[in-house]
Amino acid sequence: MDSSIFRAYDIRGIYPTELNETNIVTVTNAIYQFFTEKLGKKNLTIALGRDMRLSSPSLNEVVRKTLLNLGITVVDIGLSSTPTVYFSVYHFKYDAGIQISASHNPKQWNGIKFFYRVDNKLIKVSKNTGMDEVKNLALKNEFTFPESEGKLINKEVVKEEVDYAFQLVNPKINKFKVIADTANAMGALYLEEIFKRTNCELIKMNFELDGNMPVHEANPIKFETLKDLQERIKKEKANFGIATDGDGDRIFFIDEKSQIIPSTLISALIAREILTRNKNEKILVDIRYTRNTVKVVKDFGGTPIINMVGHALITETLNKENGAFSGESSGHYFFRETGGAESSVRVIYYLMDVLSKYNKPLSEIITELLSSYESGEFNFKLPENENNQNFLKKISESFKDGTIDWMDGISVDYPDWRFNIRGSNNEPLIRLNLEADKEELMKEKLAKVKEKIISLGAVSD
Predict the structure, then answer these.
(1) Can you give the CATH number for the domain in which 308 is found?
(2) What distance in Å separates the CA atoms of residue 454 and residue 447, rounded to the nearest whole number?
(3) At what angle do helices 131-140 and 23-39 cross, to 10 degrees?
């Protein structure tokens, strides 16, 4: 087995050379043993979901059969977004969940996201919460489980997921024209369910589930994938647009002017709504960009907590701090009421409620929340034989006059601007994000920091 499939936040590899119907049996056995050790019992109930990839049905079948042979009660929820699997485990109090998906990766990939529930909080298995344990169990492959007969339950969940999110937000929803592009992936399922309950006009782009991903990659953080959606918003004079990723746990919004809204401003919008209803809540803030969200949280009586990058880490910290909400600049949004996991459905309801309540265009609402201008992310390849930590120490020498924080990579704060540089968890790259109080200052400081990175031998990717 190729050990590289065990990644920071999930198991992921190219099908069938790295992940296939044979080695996924070993992986499933390892996950089962890990779950039994963490939960202290063997008679587990596990929710199982899958995405639309061409290899997902056969991999799902093998995982389901393997779990049933272990005596597990398998709740197969079929085609589903990853947030739907999270909701299933949290809401119905199952022991754990497994999703067959490679998220936003290209079509030849597949993988497994897996997690378990303790005290009604979800623990996503990642590099900090047991991924190495699962990897070691799989690589040893010394399992002696007696065959047993499990129980299979087939269940549809998305309707209850949407009902639950609606009850939590209780939104007012005007009649909007909305255009959504789901990239032939899993976001189509919850979007269909949301909008068939409204008077809105939903214009659907690429809603047919298709593992070939024929139109474009299911990765909205690559803004080139949003161009057709932006053009359609202009043409149709829509109120806003929605784009989701491969497994539906990331979501991006585009305003009525076809401008892509930074995820931090969606986070600020949701934080404001939560704090308007319940002051003194803790809100977690992505370390890459902090200023827009932190200002809103403080202005509305909340406590901001700066957090490391990574969806599993954010869920872990949100639960530890009993935080109400966190948003990540990559388009993940997390809530206490889903066990610390993502809920794209709830984000959509918050947005429609705000638009209806304030009766203003989305661009105006977002402008009111803007206090810091963000650069967007820039990637660099390090020189050969250079590691992240040494390189970042060299960077720090040039910015000693700022306030330096080493929580996740290096963050340097000045009174009117700041930046973060951190190593990628998935690629041999460092990533630069910078923000400033004024747009011109942001551009000026961005050029300065990029120049320093390149002077040390890194190459723009």
Answers:
(1) 3.40.120.10
(2) 11
(3) 130
Is the same domain home to 26 and 81?
yes
362 and 381, same domain (yes or no)? no
Whole-model pTM: value is 0.96
State which amino acid sits at residue 303.
T
Q: Which two tokens stand for residue 375?
A: 């650069």
Strand segments, DSSP code E, in 198-281 are: 201-205, 240-244, 251-254
Cα separation, 221 vs 232, whole angstroms: 18
| Residue 16 preceded by cis peptide, ω within 30 | yes
Query: Taking CA 132 as the corner, what is the angle to CA 127 and CA 133, rounded to the nearest 5 degrees?
Result: 125
Q: Is the pLDDT of residue 441 over 70?
A: yes
Alpha-carbon distance 384 to 20, whole Å?
33
Q: Which residue carries 């009649």 as its tokens?
A: 175
The total number of structural domains in the chain stands at 4
Q: What is the pLDDT of residues 5-53, one digit of tens each?
A: 999 999 999 999 999 999 999 999 999 999 999 999 999 999 999 999 9
Q: Are residues 145 and 164 in the same domain?
A: no
Domain residues for 426?
Answer: 373-460
Q: Is 363 a catalytic residue?
A: no
Same domain, 149 and 208: no
Which residue's entry shows tokens 């061409």?
Answer: 54
Q: Which two tokens stand for residue 158?
A: 């998305």
Q: How far is CA 23 from the centre of its chain?
A: 27
Quick one: which of 10, 18, 206 has its CA closest to 103? 10
DSSP-assigned letter for residue 239: S
Decide which of 155, 178, 201 is a domain's last residue.
Answer: 155
Which one from 80, 88, 103, 126 is the annotated catalytic residue?
Answer: 103
Longest dimension (CA), the chain: 66
CA distance 419 to 429: 16
Pairwise CA distance, residues 169 & 418, whole Å: 34
Alpha carbon distance 226, 221 (integer Å)? 9
pLDDT per residue over 325-341, tens digit each? 999 999 999 999 999 99
Question: Is the domain of 300 the same as that of 167?
Answer: no
Query: Is residue 143 located within the same domain as residue 184?
Result: no
Q: Which helix (H) or strand (E) holds 412?
A: strand 410-413
For 151, the 3-state DSSP assignment is strand
Do 126 and 249 belong together in one domain? no
